[in-house]
């Protein structure tokens, strides 16, 4: 793992939003992580923790306030040249949460999926364009008859497959999945997750998987990062995070997952964590190495207390 | 359990409910013979995929079916107390006007999925909580205000006096859902229906909200129906579970029976599809295919086409509810005495054994 070159390397990323002269929202406050090719990195945290902001900064929907983002050997955190934009927009793709809202209701599936090809002029003939869409459709478990339908004619799970197809057609190296399965039924979630895993095996795509459902994140991710209030509090492989959570916030997050075991779950109450009364100041903390790839954000005294 | 149950009073009893919708594509039989019972102070969870009819059933109970909905048959008997006088009604026979002035909000309250859309953005939350009390209970403003303060404290909102003047957009998602719960509880309902109450919320807040509802339920002795597709939530809150598929209940029982001894292949599939924190399998189990289109007439068992355990008869004749114990029923021909013996998938068996072991370890 160590001698491999990371595909995405985010260092000390800060993303602030100025609301007024006096008030700035520090949505992401010094976050560092990296993703290797073919790996899935899960970002978890409650709403407002900055997980979606990170995704959007990485794909450059925002201009990062500070820090560097290195993608595929190119620094993409500053002002981008045309070739860099071209490189970024083809090699990094995004899947959104609500498949109904993210697909244009007035266009056919064929045109929705081919839009990336259209924008970047990636085909020679109309036939080639259609052929590539058909191939992708089959890859995500739809058939070519579906190409001439409109988004409203599909079920939720099928729509999300269209979203995945739209991302895949560019042959990206990294896909950012922002709550991509949260809006789906449990049984459909499993289908979509299986599909993502299968595609990953085949094409060695890396995923940045942003979600708040920890059991799904645990299932799909190789490594996990826990965010709270713009700080990356703990990161490590899923085994490290789930079997040895160090930070009290991580522990409360894990204990909040309802277990599907009624006899255990009935008399279990979740651990509470309140940042304001806990006496922890994230701004003072630094990243501490625990073991392997396991890092915890804390001051030395706090770390001593938790271990 | 069964003996004490007979002492308890039945609050809701749905019999042979069948509902269709007239759509541009023809008639859709959304509910096809649902039967359900609920006792005072108990919690029922209805689980199933989208389109299985769980929300439609509950909308029928509230009398808020959309205008193209037709009730073909059945009865929904609901009993409630009005001034300490017990009243039994069949909700389906009541007029909309009567429902609005006597039942909805007063005796049956509902909590919806998205707290932002179920609150009025132009009214402060104090006024929204008081509204129901002033309307239904003829409370004067002062009483209502006092009660609203109590309710806000009950649902765990600190600094209630100040919060009364806040508007929904000034509150976080978890706070908003607490306000919605306060509104639902304002008139001391007998029955609380929660339609995916925590789906839009974070896990940490979800746990808090569920614990809150459970706590209030115990204090006020109300019955709660949860509509959800999260089996973890079911495990946490429910006494009874009803699994719905294509407009029918395919399995019902106590939460222990359904989780530890499921009988219907669809329930097996649901339980297997859920990732638990101990599985490291490569592929998550999925139920093959997709739910049937209910605008076509269903021949035999609606689940037969997706069911690898389907028998010949499944494609021709609809299975009745087979009784397993006094509380546990399942609609599958596999339970017929002449059916071949089929066990649940090994992976699920292993998982249930693991859960049982965990539970007994936990007890020690």
Automatic annotation (TrEMBL), chain A:
GO MF annotations in UniProt? ATP binding
**Record's keyword annotation contains Nucleotide-binding:** yes
* Ranges of residues in domain ABC transporter: 8-254
Q: Pfam families, alphabetically?
A: ABC_tran, oligo_HPY
Q: PROSITE patterns under this entry?
A: ABC_TRANSPORTER_1, ABC_TRANSPORTER_2
List, alphabetically, the InterPro entries matched.
AAA+_ATPase, ABC_transp_ATP-bind, ABC_transporter-like_ATP-bd, ABC_transporter-like_CS, Oligopep_ABC_C, P-loop_NTPase
Sorted alphabetically, which keywords does the UniProt record give?
Answer: ATP-binding, Nucleotide-binding, Transport
Does the keyword field hold Disulfide bond? no
Stored SUPFAM superfamilies: P-loop containing nucleoside triphosphate hydrolases (SSF52540)
Q: Which residues form a coiled coil?
A: none
Q: Which family does it belong to?
A: Belongs to the ABC transporter superfamily.
PANTHER family linked to this entry: D,D-DIPEPTIDE TRANSPORT ATP-BINDING PROTEIN DDPF-RELATED, TRANSPORT ATP-BINDING PROTEIN
Which named protein is this?
Answer: ATP-binding cassette domain-containing protein
Protein source organism:
Fusibacter paucivorans
Automatic annotation (TrEMBL), chain B:
Enumerate the InterPro entries for this protein: AAA+_ATPase (IPR003593), ABC_Ni/Peptide_Import (IPR050388), ABC_transporter-like_ATP-bd (IPR003439), ABC_transporter-like_CS (IPR017871), Oligopep_ABC_C (IPR013563), P-loop_NTPase (IPR027417)
Where is it predominantly found? membrane
- What is the annotated localization of this protein? Cell membrane
Q: How does it sit in the membrane?
A: Peripheral membrane protein
Every ABC transporter domain range: 14-271
Q: Which domain of life is it from?
A: Bacteria
**Keywords, alphabetical:** ATP-binding, Cell membrane, Membrane, Nucleotide-binding, Transport
Q: Does the keyword NAD apply?
A: no
The family database entries (PANTHER family) matched by this protein are listed as: DIPEPTIDE TRANSPORT ATP-BINDING PROTEIN DPPD, OLIGOPEPTIDE TRANSPORT ATP-BINDING PROTEIN APPD
Protein name, per record: ABC transporter ATP-binding protein
Q: Where is the organism placed in the taxonomic lineage, from the top?
A: Bacteria, Bacillati, Bacillota, Clostridia, Eubacteriales
């Amino acid at each position: 793992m160590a001698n491999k070159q990371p595909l995405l390397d985010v260092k000390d990323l800060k993303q602030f939003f100025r609301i007024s002269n006096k008030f700035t929202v520090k949505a992401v406050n010094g976050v560092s992580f990296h993703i290797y090719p073919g790996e899935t990195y899960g970002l978890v945290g409650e709403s407002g923790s900055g997980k979606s902001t990170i995704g959007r900064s990485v794909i450059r929907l925002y201009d990062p306030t500070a820090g560097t983002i290195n993608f595929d050997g190119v620094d993409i955190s500053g002002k981008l040249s045309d070739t860099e934009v071209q490189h970024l927009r083809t090699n990094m793709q995004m899947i959104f949460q609500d498949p109904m809202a993210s697909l244009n209701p007035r266009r056919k599936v064929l045109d929705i999926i081919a839009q990336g090809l259209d924008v970047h002029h990636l085909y020679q003939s109309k036939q080639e364009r259609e052929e590539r869409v058909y191939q992708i459709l089959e890859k995500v478990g739809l058939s070519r008859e579906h190409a001439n339908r409109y988004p409203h004619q599909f079920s939720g799970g099928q729509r999300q497959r269209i979203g995945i197809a739209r991302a895949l057609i560019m042959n990206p190296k990294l896909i950012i999945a922002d709550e991509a399965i949260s809006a789906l039924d449990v049984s459909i979630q499993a289908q979509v997750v299986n599909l993502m895993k299968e595609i990953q095996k085949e094409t060695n795509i890396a995923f940045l998987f942003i979600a708040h459902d920890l059991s799904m994140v645990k299932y799909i991710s190789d490594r996990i990062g826990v965010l709270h209030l713009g700080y990356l509090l703990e990161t490590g492989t899923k085994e490290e995070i789930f079997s040895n959570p160090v930070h009290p916030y991580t522990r409360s997050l894990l204990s909040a997952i309802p277990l599907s075991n009624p006899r255990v779950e009935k008399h279990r109450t979740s651990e509470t964590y309140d940042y304001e009364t806990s006496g922890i100041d994230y701004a003072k903390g630094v990243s501490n190495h625990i073991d392997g790839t396991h890092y915890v954000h804390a001051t030395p005294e706090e770390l001593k207390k938790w271990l | 359990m069964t003996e004490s149950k007979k002492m308890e009073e039945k609050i809701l009893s749905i019999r042979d409910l069948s509902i269709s919708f007239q759509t541009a594509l023809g008639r859709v039989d959304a509910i096809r013979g649902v039967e359900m019972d609920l006792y005072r102070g108990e919690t029922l969870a209805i689980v199933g995929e989208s389109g299985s009819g769980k929300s439609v059933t509950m909308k029928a109970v509230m009398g808020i079916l959309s205008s193209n909905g037709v009730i073909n048959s059945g009865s929904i008997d609901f009993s409630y107390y009005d001034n300490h006088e017990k009243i039994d009604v069949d909700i389906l026979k009541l007029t909309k006007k009567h429902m609005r002035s006597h039942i909805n909000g007063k005796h049956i309250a509902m909590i919806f999925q998205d707290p932002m859309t179920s609150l009025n953005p132009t009214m402060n939350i104090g006024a929204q909580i008081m509204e129901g009390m002033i309307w239904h209970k003829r409370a004067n403003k002062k009483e209502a205000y006092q009660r609203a303060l109590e309710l806000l404290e009950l649902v765990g909102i600190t600094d209630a006096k100040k919060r009364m003047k806040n508007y929904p957009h000034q509150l976080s998602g978890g706070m908003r859902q607490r306000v919605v719960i306060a509104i639902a509880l304002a008139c001391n309902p007998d029955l609380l229906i929660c339609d995916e109450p925590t789906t839009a919320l974070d896990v940490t807040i979800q746990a808090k909200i569920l614990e809150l509802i459970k706590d209030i339920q115990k204090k006020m002795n109300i019955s709660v129906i949860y509509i959800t597709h999260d089996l973890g939530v079911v495990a946490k809150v429910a006494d009874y579970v009803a699994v719905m598929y294509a407009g029918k209940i395919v399995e019902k029982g106590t939460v222990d029976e359904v989780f530890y001894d499921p009988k219907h292949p669809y329930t097996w599939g649901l339980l297997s599809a859920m990732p638990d924190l101990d599985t490291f399998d490569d592929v998550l189990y999925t139920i093959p295919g997709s739910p049937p289109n209910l605008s076509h007439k269903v021949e035999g068992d609606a689940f037969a086409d997706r069911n690898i355990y389907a028998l010949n008869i499944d494609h021709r004749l609809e299975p009745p509810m087979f009784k397993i114990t006094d509380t546990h029923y399942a609609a599958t021909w596999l339970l017929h005495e002449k059916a071949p013996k089929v066990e649940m998938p090994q992976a699920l068996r292993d998982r249930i054994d693991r859960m049982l072991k965990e539970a007994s370890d936990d007890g020690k």
